[in-house]
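User: Here's a structure from my thesis project, written as structure tokens. My advisor, Dr. K., wants to see whether a designed sequence matches the one we expressed. Can you design one independently, without my sequence as a hint?
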């Protein structure tokens, strides 16, 4: 659901008919659909953010066209008759291997009907025939790979339809035909280019409207573990063709036919006589038969050429790939023309036709030319002397067999003069200019890099004069975005403190601090522990035992401790204390007895229902209901009331068995829950035990009496009950008095059916004095790891914990925190959370859990540090809660590495799977690599966790720490899933929650019913509740019919023992056996066969209402309006108290309370979240207004309230009289408040039936919470929604509002929160139900598990519910059955990272922590868990990165950061953009721009340039069309970014050449030293086909070896097209280097992406979005959404990032100019010791205002040149102007 763009396509209505040709049809199609669909498309990571492990399809022809369009491939080129298929094979396998390396699951599909459209290219006959043959050979080559390949006729092919239904591909990758400028094309009724693009575009339309998403293969990028491209989400629309009128579809049909006919005509012209091809003949035989038929006897030259061509075919198997690395041999011009225009086009088509059934095919155009050239150059050498006797003999036999006349090559040679044949080419080795490395020496790196042995120059190369090259060592002590703010206090390397603030500033800061403290206190009060209990603050005393986890733990251990046999010595004082305690307990016992008798007397006057309500209220008072005999007796009384209610209602029972059974189920479950609780509580005195025994006998659970009573600790003293327990059995016969009470099924079956969620869920839990609960076995292992220390008592054990949500991971972090707090006052634990929301919550929980006093002034227990704000001093606390970006910066801070980093004793990485994120994932790896202490990694969702753990273990061991991996696979509570269908025809009307009748739309999804999707493997977290297991067993029985012998062992009464009530562990064993049988059924069944065993199983367990819906109806997406309008009924169904369809028997009325609120509704579109809240608010307000206007009840209430108001004076007088009366102090204080309902009533408050507020909500607390955030920029509708129990939570809402929503939700005040993924990651927001509100491409396998896991949290609910609302059923099935993708990663050792490591060393004066971190990093066998780069290659990469940094003027010869280091290092996350900016600054390009005469032009040109470098967002290629430009002509936005200034592009091109030279030298140096460059690479990368050839002594073999191209770093398969070790770009270097060289294109600071495709008029791939320039120009966010296609939810972050980039540039330039001229850098530091806050961010997110810092003018320092100062001035103006517009956006 995409509310911002969903309506765009629909608005266009029906497209007009196209009576013109294909150009007009394409123009109309683009305007009315494709351009708008492209605006909806999202550019995203296919694997990490979208598909995960789901299977998708790659269009084969789009893939092969991409391979053949490679400009490096010598095949099908004009004026080049090469045909280098070996290079094409390599390119194809390389592309497919890029997918394989990233664990993509895909298959390849060809459609015959679009082949001609996809492959069409306006070219000559040779290129046409070459590409046709190459396609056929590549298709055949695909069959050699271990990748499924399928061929279909068309999308309507039944085989394709079956393929889709069986394998369920998630999307298809294909091409859209590229851009087409309609204005430049004259209308032509058969324009083949327009026809080709039209057919491809229409195919995308058909696929999307048939329910299959599409992604573009063109423009796909592979970076680290990411595959990034545009995604076009599916929109199932059965009647989609009606969007366009008939003439349009006629043009489309004509285009198909025309392109097919064009191909046929071209083939016929080249090969008019093509006989039938026999499968029985050898391919070469077929080839010669057709050739003889075609050429006949007329063409003697053709006969000669054919003989040479066949000779080359016979020769190829004996040649190695190295021998086939050929330059382009020059032939006589007239012969060359004959080959290109006549012979080769025909022979290629003949070869294609003859080899269509061949298993192996090979052609090499350059070997053919080399052989022909050699024969012409050496006419006297006989053929057997050239190619050998064996090949000559075979050739002669073929010629004789197929009746060819012998051809004398001497006759051929005589036709060409010797002058027309050039002499032999020399050896193919190309001498390249050698590059010696600049001198470099560093105490740490020199030793580590010694093994690289790279020669260095004795003197520095001449370097031309550059700008801002002051050779000034950079001092990293100032804030990155504001140079005048210090990072550190003076004693840690910072500057002097700022002058004191004025009075207004001090008061403002004080108010801010007071507001924050109050908010934090309130937030802390709303938090609860893992068992739902309010947190109790622990006072920490330094030096207390680390194993004494808490006072609560000690107390719990003391209570549970068994008495020792040996009597301990008790002192006199202790004896007195014990006697006093006993006396107090006796007094309390007497008080309890009197109180209980009084309560029983009062309750005797009430009905059974009234008694039940009263005793439930009394049980809520822990002071009396949790201790001694009274706790047991109160619960026995409640148990009796349940029995009494059952008996009283028995007379009104219906005669229907279903109703009777449902009532019995209700009461027996409630009674057995109470008995289980009493048994576990213990302290049962004999009378109580007898009552329980009687109940168990009466209900039919006699066999379980010992397990309940013997395991319960007894009370030695008996006592008489204060009430008479009802009689249940006859005195003499002991038979039950009430016949309806005993269960009517086996007790085991009853437990499976009804008691699953109440079963004991512990996993080998035992008491442990370290914690206040009984931890499971896996939790005790975690505790052991955390307690592990080395000989010096240092924490020494790292641990990775992977356990599902609700499993019980929460305690780990707080145990580790308490451990550090108790050890000393100086040690630090850093808690890293992926989101700011989680940071705030964790800080509040730390605040609520711990308190500690410190001797040193300024030390705090905890601190928060995020990019937007901070609380307390992060460098002077013991628990730092932060985000990964900030910790990475702090670990790389030189000053902190001396004083702060050594104190870190533990780092907790929560949600550690975030390491795989596309944005920011690298900083997680940097933290792990640089951490000076053990790591605690926590996650619920890591795919292939063992692989990630192996790398993590290697890193920890390299740092000297032990490491353990603990994986617990089971959730504590099950997740029950429902589908909310909107396909019922009944019309529902909302009239209030109190009168709502459940719609019946929420249908239970049995996990096995989802297998109709067609999956062949069950995901690892596929789980069954006990009732699911029972239902599945019955389904197995039903389909087994007569043969049920195999199921005998699975019968519950036989499988389970009757020793005790079942536990969750027992169910897991049963589930395992059932799943094994289920897997065998899946493997043997065809999911499309309705009679298969699997289909029958699904039919047995599927909800009957869902089963009645057709697949089309189940998968048709509802409109956004329908989704929003029906949202109120979803919430009412969740809110309803009463009947619900039973999830397991479907038709029986379920007796249990089905209330499924509180609920979180997840949608990953911020605008959709807000629209949902607004829709709900509007519906509630309108219906409330209508009800109040017509309700007599409301009118009576208002009249009563008016009367009450009129009596205010009388009430005041009465209150005054009461205050004056003398009262007995024992009566307590006088009542101060009016208890009547009128006193708290206000007509402005929502009526309860038009609100989703919790029942226990306090009006005062709610109003106070809302009043507390009215000062923030929270919209009024959001505050009004809170008053009705509805909150919105996404990153675009201000922090204070989000925190309020979280707290109110935890407190039960608001019952509905509509959120994006901000509540998915670890937030403490216990919910009963997680609702997926509509579909989204960001709803991935990982995100599904994170969001669903919010439901059923441990300690709150025994069962969680997941509701899929308005999702197609196939999408639901795909999500539930999906597998977690392998965790992604990044290459962390970029050039910027190398630069920052030198800064860390130099700035810290080589602090031990810094040195050890770097040495440990460089000792690793593998730098990243997703990188194949080994240690030796990594060291070479570092050495050449150092050389690059030296040549860029960022490092000096000793490794000191200099000059513009601040730009490169502080913009580290933008690499290579940071280096591009450095280049443009040093080369004077930015100086030239800023020093223009017109300041306005200077600012505009600077922004254009910066937009090319930073914040780059691509547009689909269709935006290049004239129709697209016309569509947005009236918009103030340019949309397409203008070209980069020529001078800037030239500077970057020049720099790119230098980069390429450096890293080519790196590749060559490493390859020549480590790899076998002469014969090492002879296998293709994926198929592993061997092309090592056979040693042969023939003259021609020797000639090939002598004249071949020799390469060191280039792959010989690419050199097959004539390429040597000279590369055109870094991209080319990384993609075509030889195997064994693992060059990461994105770890090399290439400028290629900035210099490629700079002209939008000629761009054939991706254009740049001008959204930043447009915003700077007009500041209109609406235009950015409407024209630029930027989603409103993304816009704030994009603009914020650019704002911070501008401020970083400004601060760095100012810093450099001040320091190099001796200016007082930092003399006006603002904030002081603990002000480390980021300027220029969302005012709603920060605790202070920094506008005054941006407004200050900076005085020009002495000595700064005019050119340098002008740069600062223009940058400063641009920064302020952009920031002003940005602030206006969120103000």
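Assistant: Designed independently from the structure alone:
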């Amino acid at each position: 659901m995409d509310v911002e763009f969903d309506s765009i396509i629909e608005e266009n209505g029906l497209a007009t008919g196209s009576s013109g040709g294909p150009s007009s049809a394409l123009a109309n199609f683009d305007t009315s659909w494709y351009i708008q669909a492209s605006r909806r498309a999202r550019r995203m990571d296919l694997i990490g953010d979208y598909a995960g492990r789901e299977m998708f399809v790659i269009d084969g022809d789009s893939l092969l066209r991409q391979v053949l369009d490679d400009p490096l491939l010598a095949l099908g080129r004009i004026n080049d008759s090469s045909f280098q298929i070996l290079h094409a094979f390599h390119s194809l396998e390389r592309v497919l291997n890029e997918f394989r390396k990233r664990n993509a699951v895909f298959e390849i599909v060809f459609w015959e009907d679009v082949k001609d459209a996809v492959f069409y290219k306006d070219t000559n006959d040779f290129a046409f025939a070459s590409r046709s043959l190459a396609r056929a050979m590549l298709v055949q080559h695909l069959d050699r790979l271990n990748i499924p390949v399928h061929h279909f006729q068309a999308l309507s092919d039944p085989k394709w339809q079956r393929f889709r239904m069986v394998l369920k591909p998630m999307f298809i990758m294909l091409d859209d035909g590229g851009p087409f400028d309609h204005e430049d094309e004259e209308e032509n009724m058969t324009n083949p280019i327009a026809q080709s693009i039209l057919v491809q575009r229409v195919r995308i339309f058909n696929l999307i409207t048939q329910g299959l998403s599409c992604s573009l293969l063109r423009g796909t990028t592979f970076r680290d573990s990411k595959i990034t491209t545009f995604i076009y989400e599916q929109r199932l629309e059965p009647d989609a063709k009606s969007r366009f009128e008939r003439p349009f579809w006629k043009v489309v049909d004509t285009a198909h036919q025309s392109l097919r006919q064009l191909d046929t005509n071209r083939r016929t012209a080249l090969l008019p006589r093509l006989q039938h091809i026999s499968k029985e003949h050898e391919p070469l035989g077929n080839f010669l038969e057709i050739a003889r038929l075609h050429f006949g006897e007329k063409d003697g030259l053709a006969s000669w050429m054919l003989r040479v061509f066949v000779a080359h075919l016979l020769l190829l198997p004996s040649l190695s790939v190295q021998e086939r690395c050929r330059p382009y041999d020059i032939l006589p011009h007239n012969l060359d023309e004959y080959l290109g225009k006549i012979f080769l086009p025909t022979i290629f088509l003949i070869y294609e036709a003859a080899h269509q059934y061949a298993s192996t095919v090979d052609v090499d155009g350059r070997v053919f030319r080399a052989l022909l050239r050699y024969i012409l150059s050496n006419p006297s050498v006989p053929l057997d002397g050239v190619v050998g006797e064996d090949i000559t003999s075979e050739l002669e036999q073929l010629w004789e067999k197929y009746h060819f006349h012998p051809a004398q090559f001497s006759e051929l040679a005589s036709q060409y003069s010797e002058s027309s044949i050039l002499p032999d080419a020399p050896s193919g080795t190309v001498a390249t200019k050698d590059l010696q490395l600049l001198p470099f020496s560093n105490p740490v790196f020199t030793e580590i890099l010694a093994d690289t042995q790279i020669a260095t120059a004795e003197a520095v190369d001449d370097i031309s004069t550059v700008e801002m090259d002051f050779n000034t060592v950079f001092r990293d002590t100032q804030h990155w975005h504001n140079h005048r703010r210090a990072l550190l206090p003076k004693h840690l390397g910072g500057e002097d403190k700022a002058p004191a603030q004025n009075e207004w500033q001090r008061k403002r800061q004080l108010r801010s601090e007071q507001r924050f403290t109050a908010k934090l206190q309130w937030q802390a009060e709303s938090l609860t522990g893992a068992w739902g209990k309010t947190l109790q603050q622990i006072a920490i005393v330094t030096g207390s035992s680390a194993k004494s986890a808490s006072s609560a733990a000690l107390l719990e251990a003391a209570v549970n401790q068994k008495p020792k046999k040996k009597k301990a010595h008790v002192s006199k004082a202790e004896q007195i204390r014990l006697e006093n305690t006993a006396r107090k307990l006796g007094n309390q016992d007497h008080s309890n007895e009197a109180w209980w008798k009084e309560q029983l007397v009062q309750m005797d006057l009430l009905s059974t229902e009234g008694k039940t309500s009263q005793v439930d209220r009394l049980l809520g008072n822990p002071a009396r209901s949790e201790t001694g005999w009274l706790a047991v007796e109160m619960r026995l009384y409640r148990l009796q009331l349940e029995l009494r209610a059952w008996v009283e209602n028995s007379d009104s029972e219906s005669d229907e068995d279903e109703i009777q059974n449902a009532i019995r189920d209700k009461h027996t479950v409630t009674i057995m829950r109470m008995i289980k609780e009493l048994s576990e509580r213990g302290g049962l005195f004999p009378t109580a035990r007898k009552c329980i025994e009687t109940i168990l006998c009466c209900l039919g659970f006699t066999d379980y009496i010992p397990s309940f009573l013997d395991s319960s600790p007894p009370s030695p003293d008996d006592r008489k009950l204060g009430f008479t327990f009802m009689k249940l059995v006859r005195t003499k016969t002991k038979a039950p008095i009430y016949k309806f009470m005993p269960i009517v099924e086996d007790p085991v079956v009853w437990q499976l059916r009804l008691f699953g969620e109440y079963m004991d869920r512990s996993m080998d839990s035992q008491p442990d004095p370290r914690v206040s609960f009984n931890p499971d076995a896996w939790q005790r292992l975690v505790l052991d790891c955390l307690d592990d220390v080395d000989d010096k008592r240092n924490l020494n054990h790292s641990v990775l914990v992977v356990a599902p949500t609700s499993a019980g991971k929460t305690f780990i972090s707080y145990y580790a925190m308490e451990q550090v707090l108790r050890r000393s006052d100086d040690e630090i634990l850093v808690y890293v959370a992926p989101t700011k929301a989680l940071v705030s919550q964790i800080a509040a929980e730390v605040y609520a859990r711990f308190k500690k006093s410190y001797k040193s002034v300024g030390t705090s227990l905890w601190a928060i540090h995020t990019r937007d704000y901070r609380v307390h001093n992060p460098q002077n606390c013991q628990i730092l809660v932060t985000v990964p970006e900030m910790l990475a910066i702090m670990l790389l801070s030189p000053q902190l590495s001396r004083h702060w980093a050594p104190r870190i004793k533990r780092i907790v990485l929560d949600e550690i799977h975030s390491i795989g994120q596309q944005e920011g994932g690298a900083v997680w790896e940097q933290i792990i690599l640089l951490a000076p202490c053990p790591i605690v990694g926590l996650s619920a969702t890591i795919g292939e966790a063992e692989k990630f753990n192996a790398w993590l273990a290697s890193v920890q061991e390299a740092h000297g720490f032990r490491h353990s991996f603990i994986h617990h696979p089971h959730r504590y509570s099950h997740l029950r899933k429902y589908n909310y269908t909107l396909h019922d025809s009944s019309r529902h009307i909302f009239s209030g929650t109190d009168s709502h009748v459940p719609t019946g739309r929420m249908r239970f999804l049995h996990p096995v019913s989802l297998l109709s999707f067609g999956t062949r493997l069950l995901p690892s977290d596929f789980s069954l509740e006990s009732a699911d297991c029972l239902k599945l067993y019955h389904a197995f029985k039903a389909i087994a019919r007569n043969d049920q012998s195999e199921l005998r062992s699975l019968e519950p009464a036989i499988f389970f023992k009757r020793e005790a009530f079942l536990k969750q562990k027992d169910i897991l064993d049963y589930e395992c056996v059932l799943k094994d049988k289920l897997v065998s059924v899946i493997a043997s069944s065809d999911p499309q066969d309705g009679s298969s065993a699997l289909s029958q199983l699904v039919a047995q367990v599927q909800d009957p209402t869902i089963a009645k819906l057709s697949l089309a109806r189940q998968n048709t997406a509802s409109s956004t309006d329908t989704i929003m309008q029906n949202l109120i009924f979803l919430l009412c169904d969740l809110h309803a108290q009463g009947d619900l369809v039973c999830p397991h028997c479907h038709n029986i009325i379920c007796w249990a309370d089905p209330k499924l609120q509180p609920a979180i509704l997840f949608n990953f579109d911020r605008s959709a979240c807000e629209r949902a809240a607004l829709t709900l608010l509007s519906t509630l307000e309108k219906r409330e207004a209508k009800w109040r206007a017509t309700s007599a009840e409301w009118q009576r209430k208002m009249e009563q309230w008016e009367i009450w108001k009129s009596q205010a004076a009388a009430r005041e007088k009465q209150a005054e009289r009461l205050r004056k009366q003398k009262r007995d102090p024992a009566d307590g204080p006088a009542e101060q408040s009016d208890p009547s309902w009128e006193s708290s009533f206000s007509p402005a408050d929502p009526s309860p039936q038009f609100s989703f507020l919790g029942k226990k909500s306090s009006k005062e607390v709610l109003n106070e919470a809302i009043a507390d955030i009215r000062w923030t920029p929270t919209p009024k509708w959001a505050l009004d929604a809170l008053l009705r129990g509805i909150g919105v939570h996404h990153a675009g809402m201000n922090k204070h509002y989000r925190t309020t929503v979280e707290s109110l939700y935890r407190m039960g005040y608001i019952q509905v929160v509509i959120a994006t993924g901000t509540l998915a990651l670890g937030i403490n927001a216990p919910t009963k139900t997680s609702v997926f509100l509509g579909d989204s491409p960001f709803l991935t396998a990982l995100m599904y598990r994170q969001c669903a896991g919010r439901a059923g949290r441990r300690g709150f609910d025994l069962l969680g519910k997941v509701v899929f609302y308005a999702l197609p059923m196939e999408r639901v099935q795909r999500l539930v059955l999906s597998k977690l993708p392998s965790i992604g990663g990044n290459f962390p050792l970029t050039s910027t990272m190398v630069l920052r490591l030198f800064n860390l060393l130099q700035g810290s004066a080589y602090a031990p922590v810094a040195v050890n971190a770097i040495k440990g990093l460089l000792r690793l066998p593998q730098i990243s868990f997703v990188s194949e780069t080994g240690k030796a290659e990594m060291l070479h990469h570092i050495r050449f990165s150092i050389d690059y940094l030296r040549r860029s003027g960022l490092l000096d010869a000793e490794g000191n950061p200099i000059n513009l280091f601040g730009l490169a290092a502080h913009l580290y996350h933008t690499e290579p953009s940071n280096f591009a900016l450095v280049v443009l600054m040093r080369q004077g390009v930015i100086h030239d721009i800023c020093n223009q005469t017109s300041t306005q032009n200077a600012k505009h040109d600077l922004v254009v340039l910066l937009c090319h470098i930073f914040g780059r967002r691509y547009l689909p290629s269709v935006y290049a069309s004239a129709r697209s430009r016309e569509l947005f002509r009236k918009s103030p936005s340019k949309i397409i970014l203008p070209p980069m200034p020529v001078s800037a592009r030239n500077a970057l091109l020049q720099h790119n050449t230098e980069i390429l030279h450096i890293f080519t030298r790196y590749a060559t140096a490493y390859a020549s030293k480590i790899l076998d460059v002469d014969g090492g690479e002879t296998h293709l990368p994926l198929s592993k086909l061997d092309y090592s050839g056979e040693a042969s002594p023939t003259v021609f073999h020797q000639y090939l070896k002598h004249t071949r191209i020799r390469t060191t770093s280039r792959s010989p398969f690419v050199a097959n097209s004539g390429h040597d070790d000279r590369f055109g770009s870094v991209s080319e270097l990384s993609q075509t280097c030889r195997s064994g060289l693992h060059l990461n294109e994105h770890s090399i600071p290439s400028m290629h992406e900035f210099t490629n495709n700079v002209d939008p008029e000629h761009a054939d791939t991706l254009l740049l979005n001008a959204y930043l320039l447009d915003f700077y120009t007009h500041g209109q966010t609406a235009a950015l959404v409407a024209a630029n296609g930027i989603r409103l939810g993304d816009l704030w972050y994009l603009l914020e990032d650019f704002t911070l980039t501008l401020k970083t540039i400004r601060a760095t330039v100012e810093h450099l100019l001040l320091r190099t001229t001796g200016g007082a850098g930092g003399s006006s530091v603002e904030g002081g010791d603990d002000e480390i806050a980021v300027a220029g961010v969302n005012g709603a997110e920060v605790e202070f205002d920094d506008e005054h810092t941006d407004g200050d003018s900076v005085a020009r320092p002495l000595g700064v040149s005019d050119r340098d100062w002008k740069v600062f001035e223009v940058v400063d103006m641009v920064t302020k102007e952009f920031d002003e517009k940005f602030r206006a956006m969120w103000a």
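When you compare it with your expressed construct, this may help: Residues 973-1005+1114-1139+1154-1205+1243-1386 form a domain with the Rossmann fold fold (CATH 3.40.50.300).
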